[in-house]
Amino acid sequence: MPTVEMSGRGRDVTVVIPTRNRSGLLRRSLASVTAQAGVELAVVVVDDGSTDDTGDVVRGVADDRVRLV
After folding, report:
1. Minimal CA–CA distance to 25: which of 54, 66, 62, 56?
2. Can you give the C-alpha Rg of the chain in angstroms?
3. d(CA 60, CA 15)
4. Which residues have a Cβ under 8 Å from the Cβ of 4 and sit 6 or more positions away?
5. For residue 34, which of 1, 41, 45, 65 sits 20 to 30 Å off, Cα-Cα?
């Protein structure tokens, strides 16, 4: 298994979550991802035109590592 060197610069892990009208599952996904320890983390939620409360769910996450696109 290859070894990954941590440089201390930038992000170690970027999680991209594509979604459309799955706000309930998105809540659970965001809770799981943001609970990860031991990594520098960025989370990008890509909303594909949801008509449910997806945007509100993402904006309700009090974590500056989470972005909505």
Report:
1. 54
2. 13
3. 18
4. none
5. 1
Please say if the pLDDT value at position 48 is more than 60: yes
Q: List Cα–Cα distances, 23 to 8, 44, 68, in angstroms.
A: 33, 15, 13
Amino acid at 8: G
Alpha helical stretches, state H, 1-69? 23-34, 54-59
Which residue carries 């930038």 as its tokens?
Answer: 10
Q: Report the C-alpha gap between 53 and 41 in whole angstroms.
A: 24
End-to-end Cα, the chain, rounded Å: 34
pLDDT of res. 5: 52
User: Which of 53, 17, 47 minimizes the C-alpha distance to 32?
Assistant: 17
